[in-house]
Amino acid sequence: MPPESAARLETNLLLKALRGPDRELLLPHLEPLNYGKGATIFEAGSPVTHIAFPCEHAVVTLVITTSDGRSAETATIGHEGAVGGVVSQGYVPASTHAVVQIAGPVLRMDSLALQEAKRQSRHVRDLFARYSDCMLAQVLQSSACNALHPIEQRCLRWLQTLHDRIGSPVLPITHELLAAMLGVQRTYLTRILRILQDQGLIKVGRGRITILNRPGMEAASCDCHARVRDHYRTVLGAVYDDHGLIAIDQPQPRFIATDPEAEARRRIDRWTGKGSGTRVDP
Ligand SMILES: [Zn+2]
What residue stretches are annotated with the HTH crp-type domain (predicted)? Predict the structure, then answer.
């Protein structure tokens, strides 16, 4: 294991959430790499042989490209997560392109090695199951947002998602990139950004967009981003401060299924009013 892997592990919140022996299961397999902006981690249709953990400020998007050349973002992953082989078993073909949008360091490991670690450790299995659920929530919410909400709100959602992941109000993104993520023409997107700038929410610069008023953005946008954020909080134990996502805490004990059958019974009792605890969402 290269020594920088252990230090770099601290800069991916998902890996950092693992403790002692669970970390030791993954560490020997982690390979440090650096990806430039625009690099492809995997292509749609190709077998996903590795799982990649963005570190520090690196951000990867999962992008669907249609046969007429248009594209749209389906998920945005930064230092809170991982891409590729998160849930699959073996080298399953990818359904999306995984493209690096903000350059940075990445830790990579063979998908089969992760599979083996999940088999050996309930904690590893549990953490990745929770993360997969959160990523699915992000994808599903994006689908609804793209279908139902106006472009201004979709734009604000994506800017907030990015802000949470890089922890800086200065987002190093171009109009071209943002237009591609949202599946709209660049000229149209530029008009939208001008409207948001006139509202005092953002400042548009060359190769970057600066967030000026995050509370204002949240008030002006749909609740899609907030819903996903709440899901990450509840299911994964994600911790946010004013600058974004800063930690993945140990999940709440009531979500740890040490004995799945007993946990299922407890939940049924709570829902049917037989249990003594407060009723919670399943
Ligand atoms: Zn929305």
Answer: 149-215
